[in-house]
């Protein structure tokens, strides 16, 4: 990823291209191939001489999208947990769970089932 004067020069040379192409040309692409727009724009602003406060307390590197631990019931009645949460819990595709509802506390528990369909 280019920074400083190199970034400004390269971005200027690609200025007749779409924004994503400019960011790609300057090396702002993640491992999955997704354009890292926030990092690119932040680097451009800093290359222009503006000092930005760190977006996170743990350093200047962006960690990308962060899970909010919020969800809502969709119009069709489904409640989506999402990849960020299943990954954090180490859940794998195909794992099965028994759903237990605790009305008094408003909690929903997912209880893992073993491969034979019994609780662990």
Q: Tell me the total number of β-strands.
A: 2
Low-confidence stretches: none
Overall residue-averaged pLDDT value: 83
Q: What fraction strand?
A: 5-15%
Write down the overall geometry. elongated
Question: Could you explain the architecture of this structure?
Answer:
With 120 residues, the protein is α+β, with helices and mostly antiparallel strands. Among the domains are: 4-47, no CATH class; 83-112, no CATH class. It has 4 helices and 2 strands, in the order H-H-H-H-E-E. The chain has a two-stranded antiparallel sheet. Strand 1 (97-102) and strand 2 form a beta hairpin. Helix 1 crosses helix 3. The longest helix has 11 residues, at 37-47. The chain is elongated. The relative contact order is 0.09. The model has no long low-confidence stretch (mean pLDDT 83).
Features:
two-stranded antiparallel sheet; elongated; 4 helices; 28% helix
Would you summarize the structure shown here?
With about 120 residues, the chain is an alpha+beta fold. The chain has helices at about 5-15, 20-25, 35-45, 85-90, and strands at about 95-100, 105-110.
Please specify the SSE layout and strand pairing.
Layout: H1 4-13, H2 19-25, H3 37-47, H4 83-88, E1 97-102, E2 107-112
Antiparallel strand pairs: 1-2
Helix pairs in contact: 1-3
């Amino acid at each position: 990823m280019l920074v400083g004067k190199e970034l400004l020069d390269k971005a200027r040379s690609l200025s007749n291209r779409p924004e994503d192409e400019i960011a790609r040309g300057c090396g702002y692409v993640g491992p999955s191939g997704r354009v890292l727009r926030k990092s690119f724009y932040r680097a451009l602003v800093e290359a222009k001489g503006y000092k930005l406060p760190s977006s996170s307390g743990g350093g200047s590197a962006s960690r990308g999208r962060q899970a909010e631990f919020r969800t809502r019931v969709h119009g069709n009645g489904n409640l989506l947990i999402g990849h960020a949460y299943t990954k954090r819990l180490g859940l794998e595709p195909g794992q099965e769970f028994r759903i237990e509802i605790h009305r008094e506390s408003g909690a929903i528990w997912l209880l893992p089932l073993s491969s034979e369909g019994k609780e662990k």
